[in-house]
Specification:
mainly beta; 20 strands; Porin; 14-stranded antiparallel barrel; two-stranded antiparallel ribbon; about 15% helix
């Protein structure tokens, strides 16, 4: 980035607290990607560290590739159905949406290395795999409205303008000047004041798209049918686009004649981020006896390079005047490492039960840019707002006969936030499904129900007294895997 552009961006960043919050929020958003799974493992409650022998091992514990005894190909499309309720200033409305995805597609090639019939000693096989996985989807559209008795957009721009601390004609931020021009703020005695009335009608419209994905190159080794080792290299990428608009209509007191007049403004934030990176996975599965397995896996941070084009605009519908600030920026992002462990117990050929525990410390997210002030403030915000979580899941599979299998699972992803006034962001998922085998072909079906509570505001205030919508989200996912052994 040229020096002139860097200087302008630095001044604008100092002028607005919202942008710091945006970078720490993005750093967390791009660190929440989860490894994909086949419909079989989805029905069991997620990636099973100790089970192995499934193409989910390409993306979870690569040691599971060592358990393949044949080459295999499969793909997993899915349909995501979203619905929920949005509560804002006492009003409630329902919303819904859906989207189709390709969760993953992959292939594993089985290679025997043992040249004797002894299957109890030495390196017996090496299996190699490559797969594409969809790690997250950002697709989500919603809208709501209400009358806010809390602080409105004018309070936000009053704070931002006072942060600059200069007269209106010297404001660096065009959006801050547009707020003054639209009579959301007034400059008096060297300070900006909010001159709008408390009651204002607000309407929000949010349109999000994009997602994260990865291409994984993995191998697994079988040593004496007791120890299974694996490693994986992931080439990750993401794209995130969001347009978040707030229309506010209210009254202000004209400081020149004390007359009450109405205003109508649109405040819009545009997000456009692209990232690419790399990560490593290592895995181990021990099978001390045929009935029992212990699995461990380690996933390194993903080292991302990110190009970010963020902008915000205030448009005065009364006077057809707008002020827009753009923040082109590039930075490095290191997501936190992940540790997973699991146990599985097999009831002969009739099925198994399995349990997994995962650890992620989101306060270890690291943000780095050429601007030391932005980097330090963002990392401080990350450590202040996020914490470590324990995720766990349980699941079981039962073989009805040689062809039909049924499955059930449960997964809980812990609350990653600090200090949110007892707001709980734990996500609980319930799953089930079945599989059918016929010759060298198979298919698996999974149904996953997830429930979560989200909170949304298009701007933040120092007092944290901005109007906030509560979004109760219900997500139902149908995943179907088609497979072939060869």
């Amino acid at each position: 980035m040229k020096f002139k552009n860097t200087l302008i961006v630095a001044i604008l960043l100092i002028a607005t607290n919202n942008t710091y919050a945006q970078y720490s929020g993005d750093a967390f958003r791009f660190s929440q990607f989860s490894n994909s799974g086949t419909a079989r493992f989805d029905a069991l409650g997620g990636n099973k560290s100790a089970v192995g022998g499934d193409l989910s091992s390409l993306y979870g514990n690569p040691a599971g590739l060592g358990m393949f005894t044949k080459s295999e190909f499969n793909l997993t499309p899915s349909l995501n159905l979203r619905n929920g309720d949005i509560t804002f200033t006492g009003n409630q409305k329902s919303y819904s949406g859906n989207n189709a995805d390709l969760n993953n597609v992959g292939v594993v090639f089985h290679t025997l290395t043992s040249k004797t019939s002894d299957t109890k000693k030495g390196l017996l096989s090496l299996n190699f795999g490559i797969g594409y996985q969809r790690k997250s989807t950002f697709k989500n559209d919603f809208n709501f409205k209400g009358t806010s008795n809390l602080n409105g957009i004018s309070d936000f721009f009053t704070e931002n303008s006072n942060r600059e601390g200069v007269a209106p004609t010297n404001l660096v931020s065009e959006a801050n000047y547009a707020a003054y021009y639209a009579f959301l703020t007034n400059y008096k005695g060297g300070k900006y004041q909010n001159i709008t009335y408390a009651d204002a009608d607000q309407a929000y419209n949010v349109r999000r798209s994009g997602g994260g994905s990865s291409i994984d190159f993995s191998f697994g080794a079988n040593v004496s049918n007791k120890v299974f080792l694996g490693a994986s290299l992931g080439l990750a990428s993401f794209k995130y686009t969001s347009i978040e608009k707030t229309n506010e209509i209210g009254l202000y007191l004209n400081p020149s004649n004390n007359a009450t007049k109405d205003y109508n403004v649109d405040y819009t934030r545009n997000f456009d981020s692209n990232g690419s990176g790399i990560n490593l996975k290592l895995g181990l599965i021990l099978k001390p006896v045929n009935e029992f397995r212990i699995g461990l896996s380690f996933e390194s941070p993903t080292w991302y390079s990110v190009t970010d084009n963020y902008s915000e605009e205030l448009y005065d519908n009364k006077q057809s005047y707008s002020g827009k600030d753009s923040y082109p920026f590039e930075y490095k992002l290191n997501t936190p490492l992940k540790l997973n462990g699991g146990l599985a117990y097999f009831f002969g050929s009739k099925g198994f039960i399995s349990a997994d525990v995962g650890f992620v410390n989101y306060s270890n997210i690291r943000f780095k840019s050429n601007d030391n002030t932005v980097s330090q403030t963002t990392n401080n915000n990350i450590q202040k707002n996020y914490k470590n979580v324990i995720n766990y899941s349980v699941g079981g599979e039962y073989n009805v006969n040689n062809s039909l299998l049924i499955r059930l699972g449960y997964q809980s992803d812990g609350n990653p936030y600090y200090n949110l006034n007892n707001k709980d962001f734990t996500v609980n998922s319930y799953s089930g499904g079945f599989g059918y085998r016929f010759g060298v072909y198979y298919f698996d079906l999974a149904l996953i129900n997830s429930n979560a509570k989200l909170y949304y505001s298009n701007y933040t205030l120092n007092s944290r007294n901005e109007p906030i919508a509560t979004i109760d989200t219900r997500r139902n996912t149908i995943a179907l895997t088609f497979g072939l052994r060869f």
